Amino acid sequence: MNPLPGTLPLLSARETRYLQACLPLSTVDIGRGRQVAVRCAGDGEQWVVCLHGIGSGSASWLRVAQQLPPGLRLLAWDAPGYGLSTPLEMDKPTALDYARRLQELLHVLEVKDFVLVGHSLGALMAGAYARHLDQGEMQALFLMSPAIGYGRPGLEQRRQAVWDQRMAQVASGDMGLMARQRHQRLLSEQATSENRELVLWIMASLHLAGYQQAVQMLCQEDLLTYLPLSSSVPVAVSCGEVDVVTTPEACAGVARACSQHLQLVPQAGHASYVEQPGAMLEALQSLLGQTQALRSVATTRSSHEQ
To answer: pTM higher than 0.85, yes or no?
Structure first.
């Protein structure tokens, strides 16, 4: 039986318990009547800050939290306009506007020495933060199935088509209907029923206004303007091998801009960290290894100069 129009899909009691136990929700007051909703897991010293994509939310990182190894502390936000997070003030925010809100959050929480992970649209926010706002506290950047955006010259028709298509899907205001139409695109055919349920529930819970702002940002941005970063910042780029949203071909272009090889995640679609959280954590540990190696070199060089 198909759900009635206007009804939101429900998360099972078991998944709800997992979410509350492994990745509990809280809100952070960042001043001037604004707040950011976050979910945290782990109690290690190494922060991993995760930025979700356009059709996702902080709860999307549940599978990663369930497998989080000792030593790591995961911080996943609901972007402005998502969940309980206060929306941005402007109608057409840029990636830098989102990044500034992230900067405020990290300042309030006193998060330092972190790896920044951006998935899909979150990669644009992460790129903007890394290019314009980082003050040496970001240890590494992990771009997962990065959305490049449609802001480059010559993409005017494509940009308008993306906007029109996205807005047509939410014209009724029924985010549950949109989620039923789109959520399968985030997953591979091998995705479990539990992962399909999770992705559908999160997408159906989006707010129309926040989603519209995010689409505006997607349409006017170009990730490649933020890349490459300084050679002192390790970067990794990954993509699900059957990603139909940000294809391996497109993600390979981002990897080349970072002078990296694309890491393909087997048996995974766009939301590879949902389907294959172990692969994400393995890549993350490798990235942290590069960070530690660079720190060791810098320390040795500094001691020789003294």
So the answer is: yes
